[in-house]
Amino acid sequence: MKLQVINSPFSEEQVKLLNELLPKLTVEQKIWLNGYLSASQAAVNAVVEEAPLTVTPTTKAVTVLYGSQTGNSQGLAEKYAAILKENDVEVTISSLASFKPNNLKKTTNLLLVVSTHGEGEPPDQAIQFYDFLYSKRAPKLQHLHYSVLALGDSSYEYFCKTGKDFDEQFEKLGATRIAPRTDCDLDYDEPAAQWFTAVQEALLRSTATATITNNGEVDVKGAKSSYSRKNPFYAEVLEILNLNGRGSNKETYHVELAIEGADFHFEPGDSIGIQPENDESLVDALLTALQLEGQSKVTVLEESLTLKEALQKKLEITVLSKPLLQKIAAFTVSEDFDALLKDDTAWKSYVKGRDLLDIAEDYAPFSWDAQQFVSLLRKIPARLYSIASSQKANSDEVHLTIGKVSYENNGRTRLGVCSGSIAERIQVGDPLPIYVHKNPNFRLPEQEETPIIMIGAGTGIAPYRAFLEEREELGLEGKSWLFFGDQHFVTDFLYQTDWQRWLASGTLTKMNVAFSRDTDKKVYVQHKIEENAETFYKWLEQGAVIYVCGDKKSMASDVDRTILHIIEQQGQKTAEEAKAFVKELKQQKRYQRDVY
Amino acid sequence: MTKKIVLPPQLGTPSDVERIKTESNYLRGSLERTMNDPLSSGIPEDDNRLMKFHGSYLQDDRDLRNERQRQKLEPAYQFMVRVRAPGGAATPAQWLVMDEMARKYGNGSLKLTTRQAFQVHGILKWNVKKYMQEINDVLLDSLAACGDVNRNVMCNVNPNQSALHEEIYNWSAKLSEHLLPRTRAYHELWLDGEKIIDSQDEEVEPIYGAQYLPRKFKIGIAIPPSNDVDVYSQDIGLIAIVEQDKLVGFNVAVGGGMGMTHGDQETYPQLARVIGFITPDKLLETAEKIITIQRDYGNRSVRKNARFKYTIDARGLEWFTTELHRRLGWEMQQARSFTFERTGDEFGWIKGADGNWHYTLFIQNGRIKDFEDYQLLTGLREIAKVHTGDFRLTPNQNLMIGNVAPQKKKKIAALIEEYQLTDGAYYSALRRNSIACVSLPTCGLAMAEAERYLPALITKIDTIIDEAGLHDTEIVIRMSGCPNGCSRAAMGEIGFIGKGPGKYNMYLGASFTGNRLNKIYRENIGEEEILAELRPILLHYAKERVQGEHFGDFVIRLGYVEAVFDGQQFHNS
Fold first, then answer.
1. In degrees rounded to 5, what are phi and psi of residue B274?
2. Which of A241, A491, A511 is nearest residue B70 as measured by Cβ atoms?
3. What distance in Å separates the CA atoms of residue B50 and residue B16, rounded to the nearest whole number?
4. pTM of the predicted model as reported, rounded to 2 decimal places
5. Where would you tag: which of A118, A355, A456, B500 has the fewest CB atoms within 10 A of its CB?
6. Nearest Cβ partner of B76 from A242, A490, A518?
């Protein structure tokens, strides 16, 4: 008997130990062990049963708010709300978008989970509330007890800024902290759990923490796969094909994965997280540049492994951030490095498009040993990709649309960690560690007849393929309108034959395309929306839901301006009225965005 | 007022194309809408049929077809536009525009066709209209370059008798104009012409009628002793009769045509037959009446039997001549005598009777582009910039820089030298006498390679040619990727017609002068067998040919194949 790490509940380390032990056991030993393990499990269960949940909370009511863009904050908020409810706390949970700011006056206990995006921006859901708190209308909050859980990405300069801002502002308005704010990096599970433990202890004023049931897997939506971000499912790659025709500037991969046995449940709009590995050749180059021995043993995330394995499989080596540079500073004698750190413009421009290998080459020597070096690094974050298929249409598969990130810098070609591996290394038949990431803020309307307007550029088209596959499978008859943009018609019309088929069958009602590099004048999706302003507004009046997916900076903001403009022009509204209209659309979940 | 043309009762169910033409409202169809549909770079098949009448049709890069299907992309659709050039004549200004448009909208190359037209491949749907408009600015168009109408009228390029050529060339241009469709659809669709609502009583097409012809129709004019236009391959072959340096008229030959279908013995290539002589003033009238007979009697039910040759063969030449005389109201004279010497081109500098010079370039398979080591497109552009004469596309896909005034010759010669443009003298005479159609990757009908393969095959045959000492012996070799015959492969002394990837039927025995078809020698063979079969025959020819005997005549005399003078005997064994 040999255990495989893939798709078993054990970690690599545990599998190794088990595989060492199991073959040495006699039959009698195995039988004994079997009995022992089941008996001890029964004992554990019995203990739980004997300790009924009879804590009397000193606090009756807790409001849990979340400001979520990709669903992480919402997921955590829902999980914690459920645990509190199980412990007889009266819980109100809501997104910041649908929480009436005036209700703050009536709130005594507030937990806020909020993420930060791009250059320190709040998620869409949080903007209104954020502005309110910073406005003159913000009430005094002496009665309020609160705690903030901030999510972010430390590779950005304004790490967890929105969470920090809320935390400070509540304090300024007179509120008291239940527990200190916690800032979480991409690998947020552990710090978030610690924050929640601290919050619970404070809220329940109980030393008997054992009485709080928190199995960590409370699910608010029913059935859930046992595979998660921390324990990904190894899905076999069924197909990898480049959707861009010859001569394209781009490489966009359609990836089909087998998920039979994963017990995944996802809806159109959800994403798949992929836990990627670093490029071995980059790791080798880094080891050479650092003059470190790849075979030396290090401990990373409580696991013992070789330095090379750690750098290839566990740790992020492709992104530089201020915190990382500051940690590195302690190990270099380079004056240039110190100068770089002190100059804001210089380090910001340096980290753009550079990685650890650049540091190693530019600022050697370093005084660290292998263990000290790896201790500076964070875990490779998983990459999220919108699902491009409907589970109802393909129950055993999930399809993704992955754009290869590749650019030249300093004479070296840099590849996206995940997209680069998909494009260059992963082969059909390989296992890929994945999990489902829910995105409740990107959902088809509940009413089948509600018209939908889908706007996407590049890989932003992915969720709409899932939308239409789902609608085709279910035979839904609502009107649908797709706006798609990319560079060239001939090579970059992603999933062209799928849309043509859906247009012919009526699953897709209308489609407009914008190819920016086919003509002298650059044409983008917003121009196509503008050209169809009258019809677009008519659809809005008919209750259409707008979806925007794709690049945040270059597309989503232009589209947003165009939509405002159309509402102003076609609806004969003032700029203020148009803004209010859009705000209302957002509150009614009729303007949903999945932008990155 | 011209009354609507009503066709006599037709046999059989009309073919699909007949329905499309009937419903098209004189070639408009839904082209305006489908050419503007931004979600596909193609158009529906019905409109593509109509598009042909406008001189263009939809193709796709077949090399990429399967790959793109897997990529969930539609085929790499592109339009081919064939630009009409009666007699193959173009001014330097027109040349410069053709060159520029090929680079701007096409795939960067020009193809000179076997019917003396320009072909540009790789034009995206959104550029077709711009293309049509920009060539229109230099008085070029693609009207009726394809479709069931009279196509580009061919004419001998004759560098020797300048004045005579001018006169006969003018007749080819007049014929072309006279037989053009009269519908305004071309102007409306491509040139933003005013939309006209056609009168329901008056016939828009006084020659063709609303359904046009049952099939394509081809006319060519030869000036003996040159038969470069392959006059017997035409639906109407006109042989200029020159007496005392004056054009006195034309012998009229009817019912030639190359196309056939593999495995269908009812289809065959056929030679036109001479039925009489007419004076030049009767030319337009005669051609028009011949066309109306085909219009009324051609097979509109089965397209592969719809060419004029089958209309005649089904009823006999006598019936046809009688019907023609009835329609004309007068009778043609007895055909005059003439002699053809060759179908190929004469290369290099030739001085015309009026003192102007003409330089014929060898263009392999009619493909003009900048090759890695041969800047052909650029060289010709530089020449066009300074040239004051004309260009003439030859029926053998070569190019004549025509009417170079004596004082300009030095300048042109210098450019020819600078770009090392070749008259083919360096090549074997076999290569200089080769023709290949476009075939893969753009032609939808292609079954095997032609243009991309023949040059390499000739290189291998040249080894045998050199061994046999035949380097300077002219042998006409032609290859078509399918049996439709664009390269007139059935009239090659050595002919190849594609059967499947890498496989060809090999034909032998057509005449050097173009008055005899070839016959199948080996079926469905690949390169190794082609070379193995040709080698002993070529060596045999080198050894035992009589003085001046051409290869096509030799293989008949020695019994390799039987002579075929009537297409109805083409398949007989």
1. -75, 130
2. A241
3. 12
4. 0.83
5. B500
6. A490
Per-residue pLDDT tens digits for A201-219: 888 764 333 344 444 444 4
Q: What is the pLDDT of residue A206?
A: 40
Report the candidate in B406, B416, B411, B414 with the shortest Cα–Cα distance to residue B348.
B416
**Contact yes or no for B41 and A490 at CB 8 A:** yes
Query: How many Å apart are CA B461 and CA B470, to the nearest integer?
Result: 11
Nearest residue of chain B to residue A242 (CA atoms):
B71
Whether B155 and B218 have beta carbons less than 8 Å apart is answered as no
Residue B410 forms contact with A (CB below 8 Å): no
Number of A:B CB contacts under 8 A? 43
Taking an 8 Å cut-off on Cβ atoms, the answer to whether A500 and B39 are in contact is yes
For B94, the token pair is 């027109």
Q: How confident is the model at residue A124 (pLDDT cuts 50, 70, 90)?
A: confident
Alpha helices, DSSP H only, in A429-556?
462-474, 489-492, 496-505, 525-531, 533-541
Q: How many CB atoms are located within 10 Å of the residue B403 CB?
A: 21
> Does residue B47 register a pLDDT over 80?
yes
- Six-digit token pair at A430? 């390989």
Give the tens place of pLDDT for each residue, A367-409: 999 999 999 999 999 999 999 999 999 999 999 999 999 999 9
Residue A555 has pLDDT above 90, yes or no: yes
CB contact under 8 A, B70 and A500: no
User: Which element (helix H / strand E) includes B69?
Assistant: helix B65-70
**Most B CBs within 10 Å: which of A464, A491, A493, as the mutation test of the B interface?**
A493
In sequence order, the 6+-apart residues with CB closer than 8 A to the CB of B415 are: B379, B382, B383, B386, B421
- Is there a contact between B336 and B241 (Cβ–Cβ < 8 Å)? yes
B82 in active site = yes
**Where would I find the H helices in B156-230?**
162-178, 185-190
DSSP SS3 for B266: coil
Query: Dmax of chain A from CA atoms?
Result: 84
Q: List the single residue in A with minimal CA-CA distance to B63.
A: A246
The CA-based angle B188-B190-B191, given to 5 degrees, is: 70
Cα B250 to Cα B241: distance, rounded to the nearest angstrom: 5
**Catalytic residue check, B452:** no
If one counts every other C-beta atom within 10 angstroms of the C-beta of residue B356, the result is 18
Q: How confident is the model at residue A33 (pLDDT cuts 50, 70, 90)?
A: confident
pLDDT for position A214: 44
Backbone φ and ψ for A90, nearest 5 degrees, come out as -80, 110
Residues composing chain B: 573
Q: What residue type is assigned to position A168 of the chain?
A: E
Say whether pLDDT at A309 is over 80.
yes
Among the listed residues B208, B200, B203, B77, the one whose alpha carbon sits nearest the alpha carbon of residue B147? B208
B146 is catalytic: no
Percent of chain B with pLDDT over 90: 95
Q: If 0-12 CB within 10 Å is exposed, 13-18 middle and 19+ buried, where does residue B55 land? A: buried
B437, B478, B499, B516: the catalytic one is B437
How is residue A479 written in tokens? 């009107």
**Residue A55: per-residue pLDDT:** 40
Q: Token digits for B86?
A: 């009666």
Confidence of residue B199 (pLDDT cuts 50, 70, 90): low
Residues paired with residue A254 on neighbouring β-strands, in sequence order = A241, A401
Residue type, A54: T
| B151 included as an active-site residue | yes
User: What is d(CA B320, CA B309) in angstroms, rounded to the nearest whole number?
Assistant: 11
**Going by C-beta distance under 8 Å and a sequence separation of 6 or more, which residues neighbour residue B456?**
none
Alpha-carbon gap, residue B258 to B270, rounded angstroms: 6
pLDDT of residue A58: 52
CA of A70 vs chain B CAs: smallest distance (Å)? 29
